[in-house]
Amino acid sequence: RFPSDGFLLLALLLYAPVGLCLLLLRLFIGVHVFLVSCALPDSLLRRFIVRVMCSVLGLFVRQSDPNLRDASIRVYIANHVTYFDHSVINLLTPCNTPALNGTPGFICWSRGFMELGAVGSRAELVDSLKMYSSHRGNPPLLLFPEEAATNGRVGLLRFSSWPFSILDVIQPVALQVQRPLIAVLLLCALWSTALLWGSFLP
Predict the structure, then answer these.
(1) Which residue from 11, 44, 156, 171 puts its CA 20 to 30 A from 78's CA?
(2) 3-state DSSP call for residue 25?
(3) Under CATH, which number does the domain 64-185 receive?
(4) Which of 80, 95, 91 minimizes the C-alpha distance to 170?
């Protein structure tokens, strides 16, 4: 939706040519990030290369204290601030996030989600994730008890307890995202809209 304020609308129209150039450039680089992620096996080298390429897109990822991370942990529990939190954490450590909503198939896989197949109830979902976590060769799980993205300042989401029933020990993760002057999350927007809008903005 376009801003109703005349000054903001004028600023948006003046910025539009620059924004469109940024959008095309970032989409071009983003395709290469996706291809590199598909071509290289999951390793420290791949995460480093993708992290550098993401910094060109304006996505800088850092962790405040790597020593707080327990290498033996099988389940990460994090707050949910954007549609791409799982991809960002994957730049720091290997993990899998199950797809709870959305259409399975290529779109689900390309966004970096793990498909579980037909899961009828929460109990079946928890049992499936327990079985997944029991195999030590699998990457840790990354779960979001909020189940939807929120900026943490406007509105409050119900906190689901089922992610804590998978294993007795979990690693809490606190995510924080910053963007000067412009809101990070478009409330009630699709992930594709958020991606295009974020690529358009400076």
Answers:
(1) 44
(2) helix
(3) 3.40.50
(4) 95
Q: Alpha helix (H) ranges present in the chain?
A: 6-39, 44-56, 85-90, 106-110, 122-134, 191-200
Spatial separation of the C-alpha atoms in residues 173 and 89, rounded to whole Å: 9
Cβ contact 194:82 at 8 Å:
yes
Tokens describing residue 149: 């993205």
C-alpha span between 126 and 133 (Å, rounded): 10
Delimit the domains of the chain by residue range: 1-60, 64-185
* pLDDT at res. 143: 94
What is d(CA 198, CA 22) in angstroms, rounded to the nearest whole number? 10
Q: Which of 166, 176, 191 is nearest to 74 (CA)?
A: 166
Within 10 A of 72 (CB to CB), how many other CB atoms are there?
Answer: 8
Write down the pTM of the prediction.
0.82
Taking the C-alpha atoms of residue 100 and residue 55, their distance in angstroms, rounded to an integer, is 29
Nearest to 109 by CA among 126, 122, 97: 97
Cα–Cα distances in angstroms (integers) from residue 42 to residues 95, 103, 155, in the given order: 10, 25, 37
- C-alpha distances (whole Å) from 99 to each of 3, 39, 127, 143 are 34, 22, 15, 10
